[in-house]
Automatic annotation (TrEMBL):
One of its GO terms (biological process) is tyrosyl-tRNA aminoacylation. GO terms for cellular component: cytosol. The lineage of its organism: Eukaryota, Viridiplantae, Streptophyta, Embryophyta, Tracheophyta. This is tyrosine--tRNA ligase. Catalyzes the attachment of tyrosine to tRNA(Tyr) in a two-step reaction: tyrosine is first activated by ATP to form Tyr-AMP and then transferred to the acceptor end of tRNA(Tyr).
Amino acid sequence: MLGLRIDEMRPKTAVLKFETAILAPKLSDGEEKCTWERLAAGFCLSFLFLLFSLPLHFEFSVRSSGKSQDVSRYKSELSTHGLSLGDGWTVAGGYLQPPVGTAVAMVTVGGPYNWSGGGSGKTERHLYMKMEDEQTHEQHIPNESMESLSINNSQSQNIPSSSSLVVPEMSAEERYQIVRSIGEECIQEDELRNLLAKKPEPICYDGFEPSGRMHIAQGVMKAISVNKLTSAGCRVKIWVADWFAQLNNKMGGDLKKIEVVGRYMIEIWKSVGMNIDGGKVEFLWSSKEINSRAAEYWPLVMDIARRNKLPRIMRCVQIMGRSEQDELTAAQIFYPCMQCADIFFLKADICQLGMDQRKVNVLAREYCDDIKRKNKPIILSHHMLPGLQQGQEKMSKSDPSSSIFMEDEEAEVNVKIKKAYCPPKIVEGNPCMEYIKYLVLPWFNKFTVERNPENGGNKTYISFEELVADYEAGELHPGDLKPALSKALNKILQPVRDHFTNDSNAKDLLKRVKAFRVTR
């Protein structure tokens, strides 16, 4: 039985999904014969789309509801359609299964077809199918769980593609420039160049504590960074640090509330434009991952703790938003050892976190020296956006006037920007200028100011340096800059507002998160 449906149609993209179930009259020996005529019809239809040069995204899975356990029968049938399976495949539970112990299975597509990732005329394409954990079907963890083969044309996307196929035209230097642009600091740049030259798909690690409503620094900057990383061929593992939030007493240590906040935050990133399709971005819940691999995780944590003195660990408490002078619980003292272990547990090549997480990332590099490990995690620390008021080095969720939240209404954004600190002719310590530099220009590649002709008329800035020159010279006044900034930020946030208005699940999550009391 072949089911074919068009799940999504955009002006430039058609998304098709095929599910092939092998159901047919039984043979005399009790086995079932594959009815491939419908499968052939489905493939013919897909090739018609290709002939008309539509950028296509295919997903299909082969599953058997019969009793045959002979994988050679499936291989034989697949070969008639230009598909072949690698060694080690079996049939179990009615499904084709990849080789034991592999997370990725190779399927070869033959024929002179214009598949993404190569030109026409080739006899073979190697594509990869990621095998998801069955437990990701749980509703409270919003991950894709279909076992599928995906063929993507990344050129059809307006945002950096997260296709699992690395763009072959991009040089190592081009990849380096994209990745390096994310970080305010990189430790070490030569290591990053070497990594990107030798490894097609480096693993980047980022993480967050689910601790309340998401402000624009966390929401928009992370989306920009992740899209840049995936466009350069990196895989991104985002650590949903629910256990860490509990250790740090966020949401009063209530794990159920923390889970709700985590789900809300993932909805934010999906709606603002983080490109999570294609299997190159994973949201991993710390509680689930640690529980499933406890025998690997806890000895690593204990070894890190054993090799470091308490004063060294205390210097890392900044990562939790604490200071060494705070009265800390034993759980909070253990926290840095766990976060350090996360880097190795997730097999991260790059730690892509904020500057406030720098000390624990350096601890991970020091640990490599202790254990004589040659390859150290590269630290790529992004800039921390300040709060909207004077002297606020970091945007704070506990001070609504200093933060723009991702689902703030347009009027709220306008009021907050209007009241924001923005001294004329001064760029240093000016939060409005920083928001343009780190949010607006990377998002739109331009910043447009609308003014009356007597005030200089409309002007579009392409570079931050050009903007700084006009602002410091007094050619651009805060009274003109602020409305332009509000307009740009509202344009970024509008899809988020729409999602949390129209999607019932997202709407419920936001309502519940707003009702929670934020705890430090």
